[in-house]
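It would be a great kindness if you could assist me with a short task in structural biology. I am sending you one protein, given as its amino acid sequence and as whole-number tokens for its backbone shapes. I would ask you to consider whether the tokens describe a fold that such a sequence might reasonably adopt. The full record is reproduced below for your convenience.
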Amino acid sequence: MIRRITALLPLAAVVFVAPVLAQQAPPPAASHADLLKQVEQFRAAENKLFQDRKAEFESKSQAEKDTLLRNAEQQRTQLNAASDKLSDTYQANELRISTLNQQLRDKAGALGLAELFGLARQAANDNSSILQQSLITTQFPAPAGGLARDEWMRQFAASRATPTAADLERLWVEIQREMTANGQVAKFRSSVVQPNGEPRESEVIRIGPFTAISEGQFLAYLPNLRTFNVLPRQLPGEFMSVAREFTNATSGYVNAVVDANRGVLIGLYVERPTPIERVEAGETIGAIIVTVGVLGFLAFVFQLIYLVIVRLGVSGQLRHLDRPTANNPLGRVLLAFKGDKSKIEEDADVAELRITEAVLREVPKLERFQAFLRLCVAAGPLLGLIGTVVGMILTFQSITESGSSNPQLMANGIGVAMIATLLGLGVAIALLFANALLNSLSRGVVQILDEQSAGMLAESIEKQRRA
């Protein structure tokens, strides 16, 4: 008996002493010497504790030692019985799980659930990207502590676990909700990022999954943030008036701006450069062409007003040829021939020269700026050609510097070339029609002067022959 107790003492020492020493473990050693010192200290402490417990055990009586041995053997027997019971329970559970899994596979095969679950996951995967890009998601935010619609569908599609009835029901509800909301015009409150970057709670009007408007301004949807932002540059005035009327409407049918591509067309329309930006894209050549065009336009407007006034004055003078006035070319021609009775010449050649002089005196004013407009018409395409050459030089230079034909690097030079050509042709065509109009008006006035001067000359010759 004493031998068995003595053999159990080291085991008891390890069982009862190890936890105590583990709780009093020293900090990690910084070097090998510290590690060796800690090991020696640990061994000395372990030996001392063992000797103390051995002395305490040997000091007990034989009856107490027998009692401790019986208790230890009884505890070991109980633990062995509990271990055997747990082992039997584990094996029984494993067998039951295997049986239930087989029954589940048999039932799933009989009901076609495997194919159903596969279709459900495929539908969730297909619709997750649609829901992520849909602005309807802002109207139906994620529940408290839950996932957003698109995230839940991606998680459902990637899961390999058997879906529950609640999962299948939510999948159906989300798809049905998206289909129903596609045909609705809804008004709800949502966070809208302002142009200064600050979010603000605003009232949003959603037209299906196509367009969103807030406070008369068009919004863009940010899928990554699941929120709206006000377009930095809004659409032209006619679209903005439609948006304001649509916002203020309460019932009935009203006009609305709908982007069938869900914001793509509005984004492209907003990014269109303004006429000023197009001119700036033409750089120096574009500015020169525009300057020539503006000067030609001002000359055209000034001469057009003058010719209209002259045409009205000549038309009035035609109705009163017997009372010539000096406020119109025809009146001045009549006064040059009939104004001074003492200067009326008997010779028809002298009268013809006097009339020709009066008509020629009026022609420069009537044909004023037409030569300049013809010059602008000829210079416009030539300046555009210069801009085209400059743009191509910039394009080739960017290709040489970068070593690749990147469209983004070539866009600047090609833009300069195209804008300069467009401006040159636009200025030339517009001034060509303007010059034709001025030429037509001036020729009409000159034609009237020639007709009246010829009539006066014929009248003078007739009087001379009668005399």
About this structure: The longest strand covers residues 185-193. Confidence is low (pLDDT under 50) at residues 1-23, 340-346. The chain has four domains: 2-59, 112-182, 183-272, 283-466.
